[in-house]
Amino acid sequence: MLGTHPALLQFIRYVIAGGVATAAHIVLFHLVAWKVFPSLQANDYAVRFFGLKIREVNDYSRARNSMLGNVIAFVFSNMVAYLINIFWVFERGRHSLLVEVVLFYLVSGISMAIGTVLMGLLIRRLRLLTTFAFGANLVAAVMINYVMRKYLIFQG
């Protein structure tokens, strides 16, 4: 049945690939937020679930540190996304490899920047839990990336 609907199959693959890349991003973000740039709170789900010992920081430092951690996680998880996209979801060939990688990171970078600013604002202004602010960041990125990757970067 899916063979007759290649666009649906491609979208399902994109969702799976996005899930893998998102999982990589979440794991990296939380590791960095726990060990490198402290930005987790006692109420964060990862802290409670894994019983992590954290260093408490004020909201200003937490916002800054979470944004730094998000950038670090982005660089690595975006490479995971790119590799899965070129080997399993989309067809390469619209651009040279270098242009394709630059466009991929540019589009992802713009959506990540929008999401990261949103995350920082939600923490600073609304004092939102880091986990929820991070989730808002992910939603903002997903909304932009599929369309841009499908119609601008790859050959559909």
UniProtKB/TrEMBL annotation:
It is found in: Membrane. It comes from the Bacteria. It is a multi-pass membrane protein. Pfam families: GtrA_DPMS_TM (PF04138). InterPro entries: GtrA_CellWall_Glycosyl (IPR051401), GtrA_DPMS_TM (IPR007267). GO terms for cellular component: plasma membrane. Its main location: membrane. The chain crosses the membrane at residues 12-34, 67-90, 102-123, 129-148. Keywords: Membrane, Transmembrane, Transmembrane helix. GO terms for biological process: polysaccharide biosynthetic process. Coiled coil: none annotated. Residues 13-154 form the GtrA/DPMS transmembrane domain. Belongs to the GtrA family. This is Putative flippase GtrA. It comes from Desulfoprunum benzoelyticum. The lineage of its organism: Bacteria, Pseudomonadati, Thermodesulfobacteriota, Desulfobulbia, Desulfobulbales.
